[in-house]
Automatic annotation (TrEMBL):
<keyword id="KW-0133">Cell shape</keyword>
<dbReference type="GO" id="GO:0008360">
    <property type="term" value="P:regulation of cell shape"/>
</dbReference>
<keyword id="KW-0328">Glycosyltransferase</keyword>
<dbReference type="GO" id="GO:0032153">
    <property type="term" value="C:cell division site"/>
</dbReference>
<keyword id="KW-0573">Peptidoglycan synthesis</keyword>
<keyword id="KW-1133">Transmembrane helix</keyword>
<feature type="transmembrane region" description="Helical">
    <location>
        <begin position="308"/>
        <end position="327"/>
    </location>
</feature>
<dbReference type="GO" id="GO:0009252">
    <property type="term" value="P:peptidoglycan biosynthetic process"/>
</dbReference>
<dbReference type="GO" id="GO:0008955">
    <property type="term" value="F:peptidoglycan glycosyltransferase activity"/>
</dbReference>
<protein>
    <recommendedName>
        <fullName>Probable peptidoglycan glycosyltransferase FtsW</fullName>
        <ecNumber>2.4.99.28</ecNumber>
    </recommendedName>
</protein>
<feature type="transmembrane region" description="Helical">
    <location>
        <begin position="347"/>
        <end position="368"/>
    </location>
</feature>
<dbReference type="GO" id="GO:0005886">
    <property type="term" value="C:plasma membrane"/>
</dbReference>
<dbReference type="GO" id="GO:0051301">
    <property type="term" value="P:cell division"/>
</dbReference>
<feature type="transmembrane region" description="Helical">
    <location>
        <begin position="271"/>
        <end position="296"/>
    </location>
</feature>
<keyword id="KW-0472">Membrane</keyword>
<dbReference type="InterPro" id="IPR001182">
    <property type="entry name" value="FtsW/RodA"/>
</dbReference>
<feature type="transmembrane region" description="Helical">
    <location>
        <begin position="149"/>
        <end position="181"/>
    </location>
</feature>
């Protein structure tokens, strides 16, 4: 009970976290049953227990992170940014390759892999929030206000891009939105978007001329498949996702009754939303979408009520990146976006992604807790002032 008493912050966000965690357990258990049977010698609950332990750890991280005064994250931001750069460079040079992409590094002794881009995303949002709050008086100055913010963002995105372009572009877009909220002039942001387009085109041209294609051919193939008119030429995972969605209908086939989970690649991570639609139908898909939209709306409420710029930017910035990632995953699953490796936050099976998503939510709740405490003090002061006025007591000079 003491833990419940000490749990503060936006109750709606806490409810969303619990809801998405329960959805994750149901969906992951359903999507990994046959995989666990093949790889774990018939132990079909293996991945369920694994996801349960990760989500449990995530809830602990949210709890402890929301207990920390969010101003401390401002001090951590610069350190996190500086640590992210060598981590990303190391990943590019010596990272663990999965699907021809160096996105992971393996920790010795415990033999655990994690995506360094998750560390970088969290660090850069804290850093941008800190810089926006410190430079509001010069935010319209390109050299003093904009460059100190956008240069670190560009460095992180460029280091992520060779192995994971979708994450780099989503991170850059999220930072642009945060800068727009932070009153950065639109002409600065437009020039940055133009520079990104030129950079991407230049990268493709260099890869073509030098023959060092990195993952450029993969990106080209995905765009060609997405823009093509021939449905038979669709990637295998897209075809299977379409079959899963078509079979879901309004209310779905019911929990655990998915058939495409046995054919759909990454049905427990990248394409878990298609699995959810097959089992819970359009109704279930709508609930998931509304959960993320509600998370964004509650974070905007925190942003509007927070009296300090850093906390306001931090809450809205972290929520924007989580919701953009979620919308992108959903759009890929239903065929509105080209195939990417973006997962559904707090729902897809994962380790480091769940941990860093939980940390981001814990930071949002830390800001919310601070706002609630300030609001509580203000209400208490007003109550005392009203009692004094009713009793004819004059406040001390």
């Amino acid at each position: 009970m003491d833990v419940l008493h000490r749990t503060k912050g936006d109750r709606v966000i806490w409810t969303i976290v619990i809801f998405l965690s329960l959805v994750s357990l149901l969906a992951v258990y359903s999507a990994t049953g046959s995989l666990a049977y093949r790889e774990q010698g018939g132990h079909t609950e293996y991945y369920l227990f694994k996801q349960l332990s990760v989500l449990g750890m995530g809830l602990l991280i949210i709890y402890f992170a929301h207990q920390v005064n969010y101003t401390i994250y401002s001090r951590v931001a610069q350190i996190g940014f500086l640590i992210s750069i060598p981590l990303l460079i190391y990943t590019l040079a010596f990272g663990h390759n999965i699907n021809d992409a160096s996105r992971w590094i393996r920790l010795p002794v415990i033999n655990l892999t994690f995506q360094t881009s998750d560390v970088a995303k969290l660090a850069i949002f804290m850093y941008v929030s800190r810089q926006l709050s410190k430079r509001q008086h010069v935010i319209t100055d390109f050299r003093k206000g904009f460059l100190p913010i956008i240069i670190p963002v560009s460095i992180i995105c460029v280091l992520i891009m060779p192995a994971n372009m979708s994450t780099a572009l989503l991170l850059g877009a999220s930072c642009m939105i945060l800068c727009f909220i932070g009153r950065v002039p639109v002409r600065f942001l437009a020039s940055m978007v133009l520079a990104v387009v030129v950079l991407v085109l230049l990268m493709f041209a260099i890869a073509k001329l030098t023959g060092y294609e990195m993952r450029t051919q993969t990106w080209i193939n995905r765009l060609e498949h997405f823009s093509g008119d021939d449905s038979s030429d669709l990637p295998y995972q897209v075809q299977q996702a379409n079959i899963a969605i078509a079979g879901g209908g309004i209310l779905g086939k019911g929990p655990g009754n998915s058939t495409q989970r046995n054919f759909l690649p990454h049905a427990y991570s990248d394409y878990i939303y298609a699995t959810i639609i097959e089992e819970y139908g359009i109704f279930g898909a709508f609930l998931i979408l509304m959960a993320y939209m509600l998370l964004l709306l509650r974070s905007i409420r925190i942003y509007r009520n927070c009296p300090y710029a850093f906390g306001a930017f931090l809450a809205v910035g972290l929520s924007v990146t989580l919701v953009i990632q979620a919308l992108t995953n959903m759009a890929v699953n239903v065929g509105l976006f080209p195939v990417t490796g973006v997962t559904l936050p707090l729902v897809s099976m994962g380790g480091s992604s769940v941990i860093f998503t939980s940390l981001a939510i814990g930071i949002i709740l830390s800001v919310s807790r601070n706002v609630e405490e300030l609001e509580g003090k203000r209400i208490e002061q007003e109550r005392i002032a009203k009692v004094m006025e009713e009793n004819g007591i004059q406040p001390a000079a």
